[in-house]
Task: inverse folding
């Protein structure tokens, strides 16, 4: 494998430099390399919104090829929301374009004196004045820069500029580095956007092997991914509701009476077309349009967070809320959780869809109560001194799977390095589909560990979760090893991959321990229902398997 090519941009000194990362190739790329760079280049204890924080975008060996699932990019930073390990992944076309520009890793340091944006075109890197686009929403910014420069674009909206702690980074008006506050880090650096243009497409080591793999994958996906192809992620809405694990009324209930008004079937009347990442046949994205909004999505997580969690069954208003979150650039999961938290205080009525939209605007611009809500539920709870329990793990609000009915997710929320995250192990799927008894602690620790290790490698390659989901696959350890050999020419065994997965997971834990973040617990609302002894047994078994 060739040395990884690192582009470092120091916004304080306005200097750029290229270098090789020969010593990191054993970590593949993506998450593994970015986490190592964070540990080696970010001093412990820095304020996540200070110039010292790093923003690292990382491709992997599987990016740049024409294959479903191979167009993901990963982003790493110290999270403004949790104060610990921050990571997020984004699909679309940006990873492919970075590979064409011969950039494996982009590391951004420091803070510009005035708003700027980057233009990266092969060997040429420019730092441009962004005064004319600072203050514009993400969609407007994308249009202006696309017209001005072409290429592929990452940018922030007003939420990132105003340092909303759960601001995201947007791409193509519908793809996001969503969780943990990457957009706030970008905003703190006065960096409005990154434009990438490349002209040198990488080639796989075994072109014929890749063609055969592509044909196999297409046939497999036709059998396993029909729901994603037909409905996108909203297809899971009714399943979660029937299982009683659809978070409702700020975690008071596990099912929503109005689910049929906001599920995949209800959404179909607004779908204009399906969208996809580069070269992907699944096309799980959906572009929807109403009289007042047009947006890619809403995804399942948005439907839960701005829908059932807030007891909001007004689908058109929910779509508008989703569009505003994307325009302003904020994570819909945390946005929905903080609004539902505010509703549970009695300040706003559950189900008030107009208030949801009003609060999204106030949060993005930090106006009135929005200034406190922009801090996320953990900080808002402390500042407002409310009696309601703030539902989070390590400061990150949970995704749309109630762990009281999914014991694997209970453990996964606790052990995820970035907080209450469903994507580090995707344990909700084997729990929901019956591979494991979802109300039993047996086998959950081994399952969570295995998938955490697997996805640590997947995020280092960098590849798409949806093509290697638990239970439905079709890609798992053996297929991943084969694909790695086809693309790089390097033979690797499943056992070697598993050891690397463990190593990368341990690096994320090392980062959190260094930052004083070891909160592997759950909100009392969850613990009391699951049983503290049950949870402790799962966690102890997990620790034993990890050797911690």
Result:
């Amino acid at each position: 494998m060739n040395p990884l090519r690192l582009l470092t941009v120091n916004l304080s000194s306005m200097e750029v430099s290229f270098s090789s990362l020969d010593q990191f190739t054993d970590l593949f790329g993506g998450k593994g390399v970015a986490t190592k760079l964070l540990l080696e280049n970010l001093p412990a204890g820095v304020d996540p919104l200070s110039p010292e924080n790093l923003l690292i975008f990382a491709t992997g060996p599987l990016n740049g090829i024409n294959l479903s699932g191979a167009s993901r990019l990963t982003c790493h930073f110290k999270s403004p929301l949790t104060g610990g390990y921050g990571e997020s992944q984004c699909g679309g076309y940006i990873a492919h374009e970075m590979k064409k520009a011969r950039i494996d890793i982009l590391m951004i340091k420091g803070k510009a004196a005035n708003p700027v944006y980057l233009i990266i075109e092969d060997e040429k890197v420019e730092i441009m004045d962004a005064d004319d686009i600072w203050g514009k929403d993400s969609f407007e910014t994308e249009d202006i820069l696309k017209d001005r420069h072409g290429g592929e674009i990452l940018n922030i909206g007003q939420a990132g500029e105003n340092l909303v702690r759960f601001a995201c980074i947007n791409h193509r008006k519908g793809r996001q580095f969503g969780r943990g506050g990457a957009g706030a880090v970008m905003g703190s650096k006065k960096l409005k956007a990154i434009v990438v243009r490349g002209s040198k497409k990488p080639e796989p080591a075994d072109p014929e092997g890749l063609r055969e793999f592509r044909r196999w994958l297409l046939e497999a996906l036709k059998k396993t991914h029909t729901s994603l192809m037909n409905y996108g992620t909203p297809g899971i809405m009714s399943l979660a509701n029937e299982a009683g694990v659809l978070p409702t009324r700020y975690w008071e209930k596990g099912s929503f009476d109005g689910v049929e008004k906001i599920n995949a079937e209800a959404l179909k009347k607004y779908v204009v077309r399906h969208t996809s990442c580069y070269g992907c046949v699944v096309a799980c994205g959906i572009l929807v349009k109403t009289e007042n909004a047009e947006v890619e999505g809403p995804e399942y997580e948005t439907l839960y967070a701005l829908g059932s969690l807030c007891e909001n069954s007004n689908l058109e208003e929910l779509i508008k809320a989703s569009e505003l979150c994307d325009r302003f650039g904020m994570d819909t999961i945390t946005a929905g959780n903080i609004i539902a938290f505010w509703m549970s205080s009695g300040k706003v009525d559950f189900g008030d869809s107009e208030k949801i939209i009003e609060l999204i605007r106030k949060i993005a611009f930090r106006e009135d109560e929005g200034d406190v809500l922009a801090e996320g539920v953990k900080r808002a709870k402390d500042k407002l001194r409310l009696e309601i329990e703030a539902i989070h793990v390590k400061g990150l609000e949970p995704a749309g799977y109630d762990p009281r009915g999914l014991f694997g997710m209970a453990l996964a929320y606790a052990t995820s390095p970035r907080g209450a995250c469903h994507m580090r192990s995707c344990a909700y799927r084997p729990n929901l589909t019956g591979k494991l008894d979802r109300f039993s602690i047996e086998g959950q620790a081994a399952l969570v560990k295995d998938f955490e290790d697997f996805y640590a490698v997947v995020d280092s390659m960098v590849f798409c979760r949806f093509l290697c989901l638990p239970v439905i696959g079709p890609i798992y350890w053996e297929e991943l090893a084969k694909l790695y050999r086809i693309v790089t020419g390097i033979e690797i065994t499943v056992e070697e991959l598993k050891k690397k997965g463990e190593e990368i997971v341990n690096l994320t834990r090392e980062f959190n321990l260094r930052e004083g973040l070891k909160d592997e617990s759950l909100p009392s609302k969850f613990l009391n229902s699951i049983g503290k002894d049950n949870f402790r047994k799962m966690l102890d078994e997990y620790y034993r398997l990890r050797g911690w």
Notes: The chain has a mean pLDDT of 97. The first strand starts at residue 4 and ends at 10. Residues 403-546 form a domain with the Aldehyde Ferredoxin Oxidoreductase Protein, subunit A; domain 3 fold (CATH 1.10.599.10). DSSP finds 22 helices and 17 strands in the chain.
